[in-house]
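We emphasize that the prediction below concerns an isolated chain of 195 residues; any contacts that depend on oligomerization or on bound cofactors are therefore not represented. The input was used exactly as deposited, without trimming of termini.
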Amino acid sequence: MGGECARSGKYVYFLIAGLIILALSGCATVKTVQEHDRPDQSVQSTPAQPEESQEGEDVQEEAGQQDLVIPTQEPSKKEEKSNDAPHYLLLAQRFMEKGNFEASLDASQKSLSRSGKKSPGDEALFHMGLVFAHYNNPKKDYKKSISFFERIIKEYPKSPLAEQARIWIAVLNMIEQSKQVDIQIEEMKKELLQK
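Result of the prediction step, given as a token string:
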């Protein structure tokens, strides 16, 4: 009787797992492309930490921050802000790996505000969408996740993440629809049992 619904649910889980693998492999590819496109600058290896907040030191230690490559020249205030964006994005990823979703969202928001309408703003939005879709997040919210992915499509239409955002939107909408179907089935079962 109930085997047919359970079987279709398995396909949804396989689809989700496949999309997660696709997203993770895409992130690695994007990082490789960004490293390749970086202009030649004299660099030194030092821990990168924003000068504006002292909490950055605590955040860095909590995330297990590794040494980052930063330019040796003194950047202007505007450049300094945009140079912090990748740093905060890296922190956001590390926080999510450790299950600290609130700190991950905060770091992503800082990365987004420092990047403006250019990269890594699209990555920050994508990361926020992933945080709200994460299976271990107690405050998981697929609708918020979808809204972040829609912002990528609207604000960064030429981003390599735009297509992945479309895929995530479709998958999350399917999950929401299947939840509604499950709720309707349960309501029908209750009605039948009451008769």
